[in-house]
């Protein structure tokens, strides 16, 4: 069992906006923080300016030490890995080469690995044997965390004692972390909500209005629940912060990269134009989510439509027309 007092130093892997925000959150919780970035020049700039390039409005305290060396992370008692899902395996393989086993490794990514259909804690377990995988997810924008605005998320691990210890070590008055022993439910909520956010953005981009968005979010959440239940997730988790809570946030604000991506698609831009050089995790998740749903015979028409649009298999208006033409049925 890991006790809160045993977690004095947190290693944050990835110095993007969310990584910098979580580094700030860990520092506010009283932890020493090692903030890793691959680019040595970027690390030097962070050390000099005390700001991360993608979160420039917030100063990093002296308890956050930037580093470009993975070996330096060996002194961390737990790791928060904030890289995108499709990069998670490569990063964890690198960590496995230089770090001892038994270290808690918390994924903050919200997606499913495209090539394998594995969830992020499964990727960690494969790529870093001996690590203790966990997942952190929930309704949280990096800017809100960075500015110290009230935010609540969920941290889950199969070992409930580990989940509790990590949650307590990283929590502060403005950053509340609830713990869970249902990592699969937390992972599914984070991955599927990104696809739903793209769909919500498309609806608004097409000019369909708020009533259509509300209907889409409700029916999309029904899809998320069906998928989660088919993969052993607990219903309470899906109804919580990392499921319903994150759906509400991501489907309602253009601050969400996934919503903004869908909005641009609905306004007639191409997939490449809509991305605008920014990562929208849902664009990578949609196809594998739809594929996994078909394998388990889970009906997910909204996810299928988003997948078809991103793959260029269907025009936006044709995909939405297909959803509207589906037969009427019982809501349950």
Strand content: 5-15%
CATH-defined fold name of the largest domain:
Rossmann fold
> What's the level 1 CATH class of the largest domain?
Alpha Beta
Low-confidence stretches: none
- Which strand order do you get reading across the main beta sheet? 3-2-1-4-5-6-7-8
Q: Output mean pLDDT.
A: 95
The N- and C-terminal alpha carbons lie at a distance of 42 Å
Q: Can you give the helix content as a percent range?
A: 40-55%
Number of domains: 2
How many helices in DSSP terms? Answer: 15
Give the C-alpha Rg. Answer: 19 Å
Shape: globular
| The CATH architecture of the largest domain | 3-Layer(aba) Sandwich
The major beta sheet can be summarized as:
8 strands, mixed
- Which class of secondary structure composition applies to the elements? alpha/beta
Order of helices and strands: EHEHEEHEHEHEHEHHHHHHHHH
The H-level CATH homologous superfamily of the largest domain, spelled out, is NAD(P)-binding Rossmann-like Domain
